[in-house]
Amino acid sequence: MSLLTLKTLSPQIKQYLVITGNYWAFTLTDGALRMLVVLYFHQLGYSPLNIAMLFLFYEIFGVITNLVGGWLGARLGLNKTMNIGLAFQIIALAMLAVPAEMLTVIYVMAAQALSGIAKDLNKMSAKSSIKLLVPQNTNHNDKQELKHESEATLYKWIAILTGSKNALKGVGFFLGGLLLTLLEFKGAVILMATVLTIVWLLSLLMLKADLGKAKNKPKFNEIFSKSADINILSTARMFLFGARDVWFVVALPVFLAVTFNWDHWWVGGFMASWVIGYGIVQSFAPLITGKKSGKPPSGKAAFIWASYLTIIPAIIALTLQFNFYIQVSLIAGLLIFGAVFAVNSSLHSYLIVSYAGKDGVSLDVGFYYMANAMGRLIGTLLSGWVYQEHGLQACLWISTLFLATASLLSIKLKRD
Predict the structure, then answer these.
(1) What CATH class does 8-410 carry?
(2) Tell me: the pLDDT tens digits for 355-391?
(3) 52, 117, 303, 389: most buried by Cβ count inside 10 Å?
(4) pTM of the predicted protein model
């Protein structure tokens, strides 16, 4: 994009580009750091359980941050919460740039907790900001058509931001392995901290002050949403992401390594490719869910697509039970699950921003992503325990149950 083209862009588009650039840079370091921690501490001889524990505070503090972060965004402005998130990630990376003997489980858990806070402050700020930056066509005569056009634009912007984030997270997995090979652990985290510091300084200069600050300062007890639709959507989101992580986070990688005898690089590469493909599908979700109709999707679409998704883990579980071409069935099922899950995720991300009020939008979005983080936490804990006790098939049946619950909850969402 040329300098002349940049000058002709509207202020809203320029702010969107700054926010997206921040989000992309953060996501690359987040994905790379996750892969660095897993591979490096595996090299140091840490057990799988100890490595999983390193991420426990990351998820727990994600729940807390989303709940409190929305309130902070409404009081301080989304520019401040986004920049605070970037700063926390820089500190977390710097904490890990110490001699290997200092990297105890507790110390790394503390750094990961800070990284978890940073990630959810950054995500909440980025998603909330879009609600305030979508351009409005004020010259349109038909108010209903204007509303549809505005909502369609909102959906498109959210899909692009969400999809690109997940694709870049997959790229970050590859980047983490590459940096560990070329620079070793300490050199890798120092390089990422340096690059992110440059991004943070640019963000301080370019991001609009007071973006998303509520006109009336919300009280702390207002962090819980009073909207029935937002509460229903948030609960459905919790079950949706719990259904993914209950078999995807721990059970699936271990199953691939043990049952198919894949080495760590095969497993990591496959999972990274899955995440990249998942992100690409998310970006195209507005086209997949019927953009040609001219109407933005409603709660009915959330119910329909969650129902589609419910069938997939059940079929995979049956193929395992009857020993039906397990490797082909699992890989094919995983790819189909990823594509349909990506559409569900994009739909949900659009609906929450659409339902949220403009004044203090981060309160509603923060509450919703708190439920998202809670689902990830529940799924992660169940994934390790259920797989250890009962195997992958049991994880898939729990996933099916969670998705059926998300589908039934989505029936109650408004249809317009």
Answers:
(1) mainly alpha
(2) 876 665 677 787 888 898 899 889 888 887 888 889 9
(3) 117
(4) 0.79
